[in-house]
Specification:
57% of the residues lie in helices and 8% in strands. The chain is α+β, with helices and mostly antiparallel strands. It has a 4-stranded mixed sheet with strand order 2-1-3-4, with helices on one face. Strand 1, helix 1 (14-26) and strand 2 form a beta-alpha-beta unit.
Length: 219
């Protein structure tokens, strides 16, 4: 009997994008159910009653929540190919540390760059560039954060590559000048089918964020 794999999803949600990429890396067939943020489905409320947020992976009727936890689950359950986490305990912990760093920094700061004003905007922009430069130093000259292997840290960060044009527009930034190694890394990741078939291009993402700003009442 084949596994039933359902993803409660949204096309432009960075956390949901992570899960889709991980499933595609593993070659897992899944059904994507798109959620409306303003009208959450009864299935979402049933499967994630605590946070009521996507993504939720439903595997044979059982829910798993939070994107990086889901990616780890996918790696453990479907462990025959394309490892997303190292087997060495130290390397594994190191990858989880950086994935967690991305989780705690990039969404909040990036969102503030395209929603906030004044001092809050300036501080977010400064902190975001600082965080990206820290990530760039960790990447170094490696093709991926895990060396030659595309893994959980890459999966944690790559959804935000589609934000780069938006950050340039609202932050008055030049990503090629600020973070050239991350731009090259993003282009390298886009050569992977799992990424190129999942990520929206930067201009589509910019248009989506413009519409989202209107809904949020951001002038």
């Amino acid at each position: 009997m084949a596994d039933e794999v359902i993803l409660l999803d949204h096309a432009y949600s960075p956390p949901a994008v992570r899960v889709r990429i991980a499933l595609k890396e593993k070659g897992i067939a899944f059904e994507s159910k798109q959620e409306d943020f303003s009208n959450k489905s009864s299935l979402l409320l049933e499967m994630n009653p605590v946070h009521k947020q996507i993504p939720v992976l439903i595997h044979n009727g059982k829910p798993i929540c939070e994107s990086l936890i889901i990616v780890g689950y996918i790696d453990e359950v479907w462990n025959e190919k394309s490892p997303l986490l190292p087997t060495d305990p130290h390397d594994r912990a190191h990858s989880k540390f950086w994935a967690d760093y991305i989780d705690k920094k990039i969404y909040t700061l990036g969102r503030a760059v395209w929603t906030a004003k004044g001092e809050t905007h300036a501080a977010a922009k400064k902190d975001l560039i600082s965080s990206l430069k820290i990530l760039e130093a960790e990447l170094g000259d490696k093709p991926y954060f895990g060396g030659k292997t595309f893994g959980i840290t890459d999966i944690a960060l790559i959804p935000y590559y589609s934000w780069f044009y938006t950050l340039e527009k609202f932050g008055n930034l030049k990503m090629n000048e600020e973070c050239p190694k991350l731009v090259a890394w993003g282009e390298r990741c886009m050569q992977r089918e799992s990424v190129s078939t999942t990520l929206h291009n930067q201009y589509e993402t910019y248009d989506f964020i413009l519409e989202l700003r209107k809904k949020l009442g951001v002038e």
